[in-house]
Design brief:
This protein has about 400 residues and is of the alpha+beta class. Among the domains are: about 50-120, no CATH class; about 125-205, GMP Synthetase, Chain A, domain 3 (2-Layer Sandwich), CATH 3.30.300; about 230-270, no CATH class; about 280-335, no CATH class. It has helices at about 95-105, 120-150, 180-190, 200-210, 220, 230-235, 245, 260-270, 315-325, 360-370, 380-389, and strands spanning about 50-55, 60-65, 75-80, 85-90, 115-120, 155-160, 165-170, 195-200, 280, 285-290, 295-300, 310. The strands form three sheets. A five-stranded antiparallel sheet has the order 2-1-4-3-5. The protein has a four-stranded antiparallel sheet with strand order 9-10-11-12, covered by helices on one side. The protein has a three-stranded mixed sheet with strand order 6-7-8, with helices on both faces. Strand 3 (about 75-80) and strand 4 form a beta hairpin. The longest helix is centred in the middle third of the chain and has 27 residues, at about 120-150. The radius of gyration is 36 Å and the shape is extended. The model is unreliable at about 1-25 (pLDDT under 50).
Length: about 400
């Protein structure tokens, strides 16, 4: 792993400081750290024959090393695309590839996988690079064709096969699209086989990339590889404002980061009493207003009053137990925990060095104290000259 700016440390990121998630092409989320590389196989055991190969964006697949090629991570190989051939980069092999197969495709059969034909030569690599250069112009023209046909779809990306015989177009659409005429127009103009593949809005955001509201690159375009469902209950458990504009990401769906701290909130909520009911007191009924699960404080307020009373979870459970027994406390304030404020001695602005106008007062005082200058007396030489004149 290592891009042009962080390859000076023996593979350790030095320049971008992103720990392998800078998504610059050399240390992006498709890179794999082979932590089993230095472990030798037991005697008599052959190497796992399936190899993980990565392609453009987040596409990976497993291929069979039927020719028993001496492959290393990072080798550019030619694989069977049927029809034609394609080029990919080896990302995992050996025991690490075995683990990846068990994790991602446990039902995969080795004999059903396509083969790795050979290690790519320079001519094939040049053709592959040429196809990558044609993709930008290809996607612009395809969008124009779709717009002329008035199709309600958005073509977000295109991928050329390495032999330049096939182009795969990735698009997003809300409903079904009849793109038969579009495929005919594309095949006639581009002279390639055309394949249309529909993706979701999250996959589109991961392909296009961008900057999130947090100021960092999108998680889906840097390190996130699986998209778990996100519901509004995740925002409710974390007591976030149900504002669609704040909760939605670049893809228009709920942000994936809403699930990051959800488990921690759920564990903290388990130790808290239920707050769906009211607390009955002689003063009146108190309604739950908000809860701070980490400070373990629950706020209640009486109907018609603006002030809130902070209670601990134990106190809330105690009041609910009394209500079940038919006992009403006099006031919630009797159960509120009053903590003594401890004055913290920290930094103090003793000499006023933080004031932006600290020099103005001294400057004005010096200006006022400056004495008036007396008129300068003419010298004797000047007096004589004036008399002579």
């Amino acid at each position: 792993m290592g891009c042009a700016s962080c390859s000076s440390g023996g593979g350790t990121p030095k320049g971008c400081k992103n720990n392998g998630t800078c998504s610059s092409g050399g240390c992006n989320k498709l890179e794999v750290y082979d932590w089993l590389a230095n472990i030798s196989l037991p005697s008599g055991q052959t190497q796992f024959d399936l190899v993980e190969v990565r392609f453009k964006n987040a596409r990976k697949a497993f291929y069979r090393n039927a020719e028993q090629l001496q492959l290393q991570t990072g080798d550019v190989v030619v694989i069977d695309a049927n029809p034609g051939w394609d080029i990919g980069v080896v990302s995992a092999l050996g025991e690490l590839a075995r683990i990846q197969v068990k994790k991602k495709a446990p039902q995969l059969k080795a004999l059903e996988c396509k083969k790795i034909l050979r290690i790519a030569n320079q001519e094939e690599i040049d053709k592959w690079i040429k196809g990558r250069g044609l993709e930008r112009d290809l996607i612009t023209q395809s969008r124009t064709l779709a717009q002329n046909l008035k199709l309600d779809m958005k073509i977000s990306d295109v991928e050329y096969q390495a032999d330049l015989s096939k182009a795969t177009f990735y698009y997003t659409a809300e409903g079904r699209i009849d793109f038969r005429q579009l495929i005919k127009d594309m095949a006639e103009r581009f002279r390639v086989r055309v394949e249309m593949r529909q993706i979701g809005s999250r996959q589109e955001a991961s392909r296009l990339g961008g900057i999130g509201s947090c100021g960092r690159e999108l998680c889906c375009s840097t390190w996130l590889t699986d998209f778990r469902s996100v519901s509004t209950s995740a925002a409710r458990y974390q007591q976030l404002s149900l504002n669609p504009q704040k909760l939605a990401g670049q893809c228009g769906k709920l942000k994936c980061c809403l699930n990051y701290e959800l488990d921690m909130y759920l564990d903290a909520i388990k130790s808290m009493p239920k707050v769906d009911g009211k607390l009955h007191t002689e003063k009146g009924d108190a309604i739950h207003m908000k809860t701070d699960v980490f400070k373990r404080i629950i706020w209640y307020a009486y109907k018609g009053e603006t002030g809130m009373v902070a209670l601990s979870p134990e106190r809330v459970a105690e009041i609910k137990k009394l209500n079940k027994e038919g006992v009403k406390p006099k006031d919630l304030a009797d159960f509120a925990q009053v903590k003594e404020k401890v004055e913290e001695i920290g930094y103090q602005n003793v000499v006023g060095q933080d004031s932006l106008t600290r020099f103005e007062k001294n400057f004005n005082n010096n200006k006022r104290k400056r004495p008036n200058r007396k008129p300068r007396k003419p010298s004797q030489g000047n007096v004589k000259n004036e008399k002579a004149n």
